[in-house]
C-alpha cells in the first residue's frame, strides 16, 4: 500500500470515528424545543437552510417561533434563533458564553491569519480597541474622496457600454469589480485596477472563487478543528495552498511589506508623507487608507495594546474579505430593486437631483456634483431605501455561535417544548451550536408588523418624508448596531465596517442614478438564491439557474424619468 493510500485510510477512519462519536453524543444533548423532523440522515435540515433556503428559513420561524430545534450535519441538534431577547443575550449580554464556533475561528485563522474574525476573548477585544477608532465617522469622511472617483469610473464604464439607446448589461461583474476597488483602495490604499475591462486580476479572481469554494466544502467544515489540532503547520500550509485564499494572503503580504517600508522610510516628524508609486495598479491613497491609519496608531508608545505583524496582516485579509462580497451583493440587489420598482427609482432620482442642484457651482453640470459626506448620508429617501433593502435582504443571512458552558437562554416570545408545553427559556448544554437567523429576525412580524417581509422603504419615513426608526414594539427591539435590524449584528462582534458599507452604497447610487436609468429585461426572470450569501441567477430557459448574474436594461436618464 502506498503512503498516500495509507494516509487516506487513516483519514477516512478518523472521519468515521468522528462521525460515530458525533451521532452517539447527540442523544445525550437533545434540545427540548419543538422543531422540524430530519430531512436527511446526514445533512439533517442543513441543506434546506443553506441551499436556496429563503422560504424554508422564514417558514421555520413562522411555524415554531423565535427558537427552533433543528438537525445539523451528522445528526447534531442545534438551536435556530431569531427571538429579540435571546439575540440580545447571545450577542451582547452573554457574548462570552456564546462565542464563535471552533470551526469558524480555526477555519478563518487558516484562511485569513490572525484578524478579527479569527480571534476570541481578550485578543479579539484588544484588536477591536485598536480598530474601532480607525472606522470612526471622521475617518469615513476622509475616505469619501477616495471612493468618489471609483463610483465615477463605474458610471463611465457602464455609459461606454451603451452602444444602442438602451443596452442589456449584466451588472454583477461591474458591481463586484467596483466593490473590490472601493475596499482595496479604502482599506489598503491600493488599486488592482479592477474597473479596467481589459484587466483580470488574479487577486480578484481568488476573492470571487472564495465563497463558492467555501460553500462546496460545507460538509467537511466540522472537521476543521480536528485538522488544525492533528496536522503539523507544514501539512496545513501544504493543504491550504490549493485554496483561493493563499493567493490573497501572498498578495496582502506584499502590499503590507511595501506599505510598511514606505511608512517607516518617511516617518520623519510624525507626519506621513508616502513616496508611493502612482500607476494603473499600485498605491493610491497617500496614507489616508484604513491600514495606514492602523499602522500609525499601532506605535511602540502603545506597547500594551500593540498588534503583532501577523495580527496586522490578518486584518488586511479580513477587512477585504468581509467588505467585498457583502457590499457587492447589496449594491446589485439595490439596483435590481430600483429596476423592478420604477416609482422608487424616480423618487430617488428626484431626491438626488434636488440635492446636487442645491450644491452646483457656476460652471458644473449638476450630475457631476459630488455631495459632501453629511449631505450624502442625510438624504432621507436614499437612507430609507438602503435600510429597507438591507433589512429585507440581508447579504449575510445566518451566523453561528457555540455555548462555552451550559446556560439558559431567555426568550421574549414563548415557544413550544418538544412535548408541546409553552416555555419562555431554553436550557442549553455546553458546546451547543446556536444559529443566529439575521433573516428571520429582520422579518419578525411581532417587531416589524404584518408586512415585515414586504420591501417598503416608506416604513422608514413619516408621511411628510422625515426619517423615523421602525422596528420597536413597545420598547422591544433587536440589539443591532444599524437601526434595530440584525443585518450588521450587534454587540462586541458587530460589523466594524457598516458605516463604510453605507457610505459606499449611498455614493454608488447617487452617482449612477444621476446619469443612468435601470429597468428589468422582459424575457429574463432574475431569482435570488439564498446560500448563506445571496446569489442572483437567471431562471431557465433564459438562464442556467446557476451563474451569478443580474442582467438589467440600462440607458441614459431623461427628463421624463423624474
Ligand atoms: C452590506 C455590507 C455588509 C454586511 C451586511 C456585513 C455584515 C457583517 C456581519 C453580520 C458581521 C458579523 C459576523 C460574525 O459575527 O460572524 C460582520 C463582521 C465584520 N465585518 Fe461586515 N458587513 C458588511 C460590510 C463590511 C465592510 C464594508 C467591512 C470593512 C470595511 C466589513 C468588515 C467586517 C469585519 C472586519 C467584521 C468582523 C468584526 C469582528 O468580528 O469583530 N464589513 N459584518
UniProtKB/TrEMBL annotation:
InterPro entries on file: Cyt_P450 (IPR001128), Cyt_P450_E_grp-I (IPR002401), Cyt_P450_sf (IPR036396), Cytochrome_P450_monoxygenase (IPR050121)
Cofactor(s) needed for function: heme
UniProt GO molecular function: heme binding; iron ion binding; monooxygenase activity; oxidoreductase activity, acting on paired donors, with incorporation or reduction of molecular oxygen
Range of residues in the leader sequence: 1-30
Pathway info: Secondary metabolite biosynthesis
Organism of derivation: Rhodonia placenta
PANTHER family given in the database record: CYTOCHROME P450 (PTHR24305), CYTOCHROME P450 12A4, MITOCHONDRIAL-RELATED (PTHR24305:SF166)
Family, as annotated: Belongs to the cytochrome P450 family.
Keyword Iron: yes
Name of the protein described by the UniProt record: Cytochrome P450
Keywords associated with the record: Heme, Iron, Metal-binding, Monooxygenase, Oxidoreductase, Signal
Binding site for heme: 495
Pfam families hit by this protein: p450
Amino acid at each position: 500500500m502506498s503512503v498516500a493510500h495509507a494516509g487516506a485510510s487513516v483519514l477516512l477512519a478518523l472521519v468515521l470515528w468522528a462521525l460515530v462519536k458525533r451521532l452517539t453524543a447527540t442523544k445525550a444533548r437533545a434540545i427540548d424545543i419543538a422543531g422540524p423532523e430530519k430531512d436527511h440522515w446526514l445533512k439533517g435540515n442543513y441543506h434546506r437552510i443553506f441551499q436556496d433556503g429563503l422560504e424554508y428559513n422564514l417558514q421555520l420561524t413562522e411555524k415554531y417561533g423565535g427558537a427552533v430545534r433543528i438537525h445539523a450535519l451528522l445528526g447534531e441538534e442545534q438551536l435556530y434563533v431569531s427571538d429579540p431577547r435571546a439575540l440580545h443575550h447571545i450577542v451582547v449580554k452573554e457574548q462570552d458564553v456564546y462565542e464563535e464556533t471552533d470551526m469558524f475561528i480555526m477555519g478563518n485563522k487558516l484562511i485569513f491569519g490572525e484578524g478579527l474574525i479569527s480571534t476570541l476573548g481578550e485578543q479579539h477585544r484588544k484588536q477591536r480597541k485598536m480598530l474601532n477608532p480607525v472606522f470612526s465617522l471622521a475617518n469615513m469622511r476622509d475616505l469619501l474622496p477616495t471612493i468618489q472617483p471609483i463610483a465615477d469610473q463605474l458610471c463611465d464604464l457602464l455609459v461606454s457600454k451603451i452602444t444602442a439607446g438602451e443596452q442589456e448589461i449584466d451588472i454583477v461583474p461591474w458591481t463586484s469589480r467596483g466593490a473590490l476597488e472601493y475596499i482595496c483602495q479604502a482599506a489598503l490604499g491600493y488599486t488592482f485596477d479592477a474597473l479596467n475591462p481589459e484587466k483580470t486580476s488574479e487577486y480578484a479572481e481568488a476573492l470571487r472563487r472564495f465563497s463558492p469554494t467555501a460553500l462546496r466544502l460545507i460538509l467537511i467544515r466540522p472537521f476543521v478543528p480536528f485538522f488544525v489540532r492533528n496536522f503539523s503547520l507544514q501539512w496545513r500550509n501544504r493543504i491550504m495552498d490549493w485554496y483561493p485564499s493563499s493567493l490573497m494572503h501572498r498578495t496582502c503580504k506584499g502590499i503590507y511589506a511595501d506599505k510598511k517600508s514606505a511608512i517607516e522610510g518617511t516617518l520623519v516628524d510624525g507626519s506621513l508623507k508616502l513616496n508611493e508609486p502612482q500607476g494603473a495598479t499600485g498605491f493610491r491613497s497617500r496614507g489616508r487608507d484604513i491600514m495606514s491609519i492602523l499602522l500609525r496608531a499601532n506605535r511602540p508608545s502603545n506597547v500594551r495594546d500593540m498588534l503583532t505583524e501577523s495580527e496586522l496582516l490578518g486584518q488586511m485579509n479580513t477587512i477585504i474579505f468581509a467588505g467585498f462580497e457583502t457590499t457587492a451583493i447589496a449594491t446589485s440587489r439595490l439596483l435590481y430593486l430600483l429596476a423592478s420598482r420604477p416609482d422608487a427609482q424616480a423618487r430617488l432620482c428626484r431626491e438626488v437631483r434636488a440635492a446636487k442642484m442645491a450644491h452646483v457651482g457656476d460652471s458644473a453640470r449638476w450630475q457631476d456634483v459630488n455631495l459632501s459626506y453629511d449631505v450624502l448620508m442625510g438624504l432621507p429617501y436614499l437612507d430609507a431605501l438602503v435600510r429597507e433593502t438591507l433589512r429585507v435582504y440581508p447579504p449575510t443571512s445566518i451566523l453561528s455561535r457555540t455555548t462555552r458552558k451550559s446556560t439558559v437562554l431567555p426568550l421574549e416570545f414563548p415557544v413550544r417544548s418538544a412535548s408541546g408545553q409553552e416555555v419562555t427559556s431554553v436550557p442549553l448544554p455546553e458546546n451547543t451550536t446556536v444559529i443566529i437567523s439575521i433573516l428571520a429576525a429582520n422579518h419578525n412580524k411581532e417587531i416589524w408588523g404584518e408586512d415585515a417581509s414586504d420591501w417598503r422603504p416608506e416604513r422608514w419615513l413619516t408621511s411628510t418624508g422625515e426619517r423615523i426608526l421602525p422596528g420597536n414594539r413597545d420598547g422591544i427591539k433587536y440589539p443591532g448596531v444599524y437601526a434595530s435590524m440584525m443585518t450588521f449584528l450587534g454587540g462586541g462582534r458587530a460589523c466594524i465596517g457598516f458605516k463604510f458599507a453605507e457610505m459606499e452604497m449611498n455614493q454608488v447610487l447617487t452617482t449612477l442614478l444621476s446619469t443612468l436609468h435601470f429597468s428589468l429585461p422582459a424575457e429574463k426572470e432574475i431569482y435570488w438564491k439564498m446560500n448563506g450569501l445571496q446569489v442572483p441567477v437567471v431562471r431557465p430557459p433564459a438562464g442556467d439557474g446557476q451563474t451569478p448574474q443580474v442582467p438589467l436594461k440600462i440607458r441614459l436618464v431623461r427628463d421624463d424619468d423624474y
